[in-house]
Amino acid sequence: MRSIMLRSTITNTRYGVLWLLLSISPVFAQAPGVVDFNPKRFTMNNPATVGVDVQFDQAMDETTLQSPNFLVYGESSGFHDGTYGYNGGAFTATFTPTNPFEAGERVIVILTQGVLNSGGTPLVASLQWSFYIQVTGGTAKFNLDSTYATDNGAHFVGVGYLNNDADLDIAIPHSKGDNVHTWLNLGNGDFSREEILTVGDSPRALTIGDFDRDGDLDIIVSNQLTHNLTLLLNNGDGTYSTQSPISVGLEPVHVISGDLNGDGALDLAVVTSVSLELSILFNNGNATFQTPVNYALTRTPGASFIGDYNNDGFMDVVVTNFGGGNHIVSLFTNDGTGALGAAQEFDTGTAPRIILGQDFNADGWLDVATVDRDLPGISILLNDGAGGFLARSDVTFGSDPFSLAVGDLDGDLDADLVVTDNLDNVIQVLLNDGARA
Q1: What count of other Cβ atoms lies within 10 Å of the Cβ of residue 94?
Q2: Domain of 53?
Q3: Residue where one domain finishes, among candidates 350, 375, 400
Q4: Least confidently predicted of 145-159, 193-207, 237-251
Q5: Residue 230 counted as domain residue
Q6: SS3 content of the chain, % helix, strand, coil (to 5)
């Protein structure tokens, strides 16, 4: 941007002559942008020790290219410490993690508007992208190794480094017991139940994340019949302290976390089955949350997922909806501030419940998979390359498919699926054939 500066000089006051000297000086305040980054979006071949590099289009202020403005977050391992660097000649910032990521986990890079150029101008907008850590040696064949007794109503399971020992632990809500059980990994794949934590009435789902940015993974639970969320803050050793309930709409059935406004703090997306709302709760950065911002849903929601579906660097939200004879996926795109646009609706299979995002055909765009209980089976909606979805393709099987997980199960660098069946009492493994269509 070019500005004109007006400078007045009185050169001869005796004759009342006023000379105005106009000096035009270029003042460049163009907001910096990102021209390239590595690893690329949604790639699955990244080693556990992979670093991150970001190339800008102009000289940057090196002191701002570090935490809390440049963050790297593993969904199982939390926010990562590491070494930051900057190559001024190439306008490139780098991050090398201190500890490795977890095999198979999604890693999210966050650049906030605290990143400044050398003149002090911030990024035009925050930027996020995600990639996956490579799984090696998988065969997609499983043996029943151990069985652990637990309470009734275990509809959901979450995993993460709950006690920071680099072994994946487990947290399970129980809708019949009104509690959450945490199970700590002993380091050999065996588990010991650590705590039974009382929460609200009929907990249906949970999300694990470092909500207070203290380096430990916390837990937030959706309680369907008390119409609230329970925040369980990690004490630093894998034990938890229960905080005051967080009020939301009527009958929250699912909760998920992600940074929706690009400030480096994990926010919440909650769907409520009676209020028929998608509620966004912005994190103040210390695990306290603002009043929910609600978006109306036209049908009963099952679950939601946070991801960047139009590759604009902002995290969007997708929701499964069923009822009224129509079964849809609703896509809410983010304007970069955390505000969501009007829902775009896409047809999916009957009675869709769980939804996950993944690039199933490796084209660099995020797709979705839904579990459809009345199909029965799953539906895959491939991204159309413009931030929407193509017509669904269905895979039918089982009697009552209930829940869904995604990952590279056979180590061939594409995304496979695991589905539980509520009536047949089996687990279905669906391997990706690697086709790119």
Answers
A1: 17
A2: 34-133
A3: 375
A4: 145-159
A5: yes
A6: 0, 50, 50
Among candidate residues 315, 278, 271, 275, the one with its CA nearest the CA of residue 294: 278
The contacts of residue 82 (CB under 8 Å, 6+ apart) are 51, 72, 95, 96, 97, 98
Q: How many Å apart are CA 213 and CA 266, to the nearest integer? A: 9
Residue closest to 281 by CA, chosen among 247, 329, 243, 236: 247
Answer for the pair 96, 83: CB distance below 8 angstroms, yes or no.
yes
- Band (325; pLDDT cuts 50, 70, 90): low
Q: Are residues 177 and 305 in the same domain?
A: yes
Last residue of some domain: 332, 350, 375? 375
Q: Note the pLDDT of residue 11.
A: 40
pTM: 0.91
**CATH code where residue 96 lies:** 2.60.40.1220
Size (the chain), residues: 437
What's the pLDDT tens digit per position in 358-397?
A: 999 999 999 999 999 888 999 999 999 999 999 999 999 9
Q: 207 and 128: one domain?
A: no
Same-domain pairing of 84 and 230: no
Q: 222-273: per-residue pLDDT in tens?
A: 999 999 999 999 999 999 999 999 999 999 999 999 999 999 999 999 999 9
Which DSSP state fits 115? -
Handedness of CA 194, 195, 196, 202 (dihedral sign): negative
Q: HSE (CB half, 13 Å, CA atoms) of 271? A: 27
Cβ contact 226:200 at 8 Å: yes
Residues 165 and 127 placed together within one structural domain of the fold: no
Co-location of 371 and 281 in the same domain: yes
Is the same domain home to 357 and 278?
yes
The token duo for 349 is 């299979």
Residue 266, token pair as written in the block? 């994990």
Contact 358, 307 (CB under 8 A): no
Instruction: Report the CATH number at residue 202.
Output: 2.130.10.130
**Are residue 306 and residue 189 in the same domain, yes or no?**
yes
Least confident window among 7-16, 98-107, 122-131, 237-246: 7-16
**Domain identity same for 94 and 214:** no
Instruction: Grade residue 291 by pLDDT with cuts at 50, 70 and 90.
Output: very high
Evaluated on CA atoms 73, 79, 85, 88, the torsion sign reads positive
